[in-house]
Write a structure and sequence with these properties.
Layout: H1 7-17, E1 29-31, E2 38-40, E3 51-60, E4 64-73, E5 81-84, E6 91-92, E7 97-100, E8 103-106, E9 115-119, E10 129-131, E11 139-141, E12 151-157, H2 163-176, E13 181-185, E14 190-195, H3 198-212, E15 216-219, E16 233-241, E17 248-256, H4 281-294
Antiparallel strand pairs: 1-2, 1-11, 3-4, 3-10, 4-9, 5-6, 5-10, 7-8, 12-14, 12-15, 13-14, 16-17
């Protein structure tokens, strides 16, 4: 409340009913990978090694990229050097903030239970573990099971020349939201953003417009249809062109047959006895591979 009404009663209630960090059950960290990973429980001791978890990334127009983390163990100060995951190069905190609504208040230290933030560090990402000792290099938090982003929209800018701004906006939004992913389909030359539904997409597009000043047009993503060979066949083509001078001549014999699903493409040279110069064979293979990329019928 803006007047502070009820704040004292709420604090007294929290003190009486809510367990302190020493009595609570902190989420376990995992050490190692796969089935060999073992649970490690940290202690809310301000004198122990630092152990913190980045649970949110935010991009502020004035401060830049913010990594917001909760401290589970140890004390973080502006001169503390921290490692990100199993990174070998530490970074210096520099400016340590506490978030209060839209304000960033700089503080001298953060202790277990505090939620703090650091700015302008590109290596920070969602779910990263911060620590000040190589003893915790293999530590990570148990991952959350987020829903898969299934709803997709192809996107392009309304105004020409804003493609770079769109790319930057999509990158920053995907850093902030683990349920939002961006894909670029090379075959269709199409950028597709995926989220949890139409409302999720609409909210992100509003943020894109208000925060990054980019307006977009959307449409359903196109489908990259595939062609394949269904039965063995043979082909022969002769190219002959005279335009003065030496002219052009080429002749190709090609035999194709289907392979098993997922086995991909294989080129076999059956020429024997030097009937065709060896130096020309790679050009034949290159032509076939080009058709594989484009499609022989639909293109």
């Amino acid at each position: 409340a803006t007047t502070g009404a009820g704040t004292g009663e709420l604090l007294r209630l929290c003190k009486r009913l809510i367990p302190n960090p020493a009595e609570g059950n902190p989420p376990p960290f995992l050490k190692g990978e796969g089935e060999d990973a073992e649970e490690v429980t940290c202690a809310p001791d301000p004198d122990a090694h630092v152990l913190a978890h980045v649970f949110k990334i935010a991009n502020d127009p004035f401060v830049g990229k913010l990594g917001i983390f909760r401290i589970y163990q140890g004390t973080v100060r502006p001169d503390t050097q921290l490692y990100v995951g199993d990174g070998r190069k530490p970074f210096k905190v520099g400016h340590l903030f506490k978030m209060q609504g839209g304000k960033h208040d700089e503080v001298d230290a953060g202790i277990p239970g505090d939620i703090c933030a650091v700015a302008k560090l590109d290596e920070l990402h969602y779910d990263a573990v911060l620590h000040d000792s190589h003893d915790e290099d293999q530590y990570r938090m148990k991952p959350l099971d987020f829903p898969q982003p299934m709803f997709g929209l192809a996107v392009n800018t309304k105004q020409r020349g804003q493609e770079q701004k769109l790319s930057m906006a999509l990158q920053k939004l995907s850093e902030e939201d683990p349920c939002f992913v961006v894909e670029h389909n090379q075959e269709l030359n199409e950028t597709v953003m995926r989220g949890l539904g139409e409302l999720h997409m609409r909210i992100l597009m509003e943020r894109m417009k208000e925060k990054y000043h980019v307006e977009v047009d959307t449409r359903p993503p196109r489908i990259a249809y595939r062609e394949t060979i269904t039965r063995p066949a043979e082909g022969h083509y002769r190219h002959k062109k005279q335009t003065g001078g030496a002219g052009q001549f080429g002749e190709v014999f090609l035999r194709v047959r289907p392979r098993g699903r997922g086995e991909g493409f294989e080129f076999i040279n059956k020429v024997v006895g030097g009937a065709i110069p060896t130096s020309l064979i790679p050009a034949v293979e290159k032509g076939v591979r080009q058709i594989l990329d484009e499609g022989a019928i639909a293109g």
